[in-house]
Design goal:
Mean pLDDT: 81
CATH architecture of the largest domain: 3-Layer(aba) Sandwich
Low-confidence stretches: none
InterPro entries: Sig_transdc_resp-reg_C-effctor
Order of helices and strands: EHEHEHEHEHHHHHH
CATH class of the largest domain: Alpha Beta
Structural class: alpha/beta
Largest sheet: 5 strands, parallel
GO molecular function, one term: DNA binding
Strand content: 15-25%
CATH superfamily of the largest domain: Response regulator
Radius of gyration: 17 Å
CATH topology of the largest domain: Rossmann fold
Protein name: HTH luxR-type domain-containing protein
Amino acid sequence: MAKRIVIYSECPHAALGLASLCQNLPGKSDCQVVMTLDALHQALIQPIVTLLLCVAKGTTEEMAGLLEMSVPKHCHRGSVTLHDTPVLKRMFDAAGFDMVLSAREPLASLAERLRLMWRRTPQQYKQQCKKATIYLAKERAVLCELLRGKNLHYIADNFGLSYNSVSRYKQRGLRRTGIDSLNAMICELNGNR
């Protein structure tokens, strides 16, 4: 059975580069390139994805979309995210992406890391996922809504939770990321573009 690779990038040049890099992986594989979060969602609900490669540009809407999809649970061998800000690295690490690399990673290094990831078994991947710090479901949901610009009262009403509970989920989610406040996260994102 062919292994399935999904590449998410809004930049066609980055997607083409990653697709050509994946052609060098051993064995037969089907490579699908998607350029929107909706297309990524559709790709992930189809048969199991062996490897997922994401190029995150760092908008709050994109971050919310990737967090909301709980992308790593759909992958058989792993998920790689290329980013360009430290806050994205911390956020995607906490979300369970197992390899979060700088978009400036040397090509040879990226190719070697992909080969190592490609060789590991699904059992090795599941074992690594157990060790990762992953957001709790409510932390993830609250952070997604906050990134979309919703306020704590709105989230509390929609989730049927108290304002204090929503505030705690927000603080725990931010603490896992290593950020003091949502404003600090957004400022760090906007300052690095």
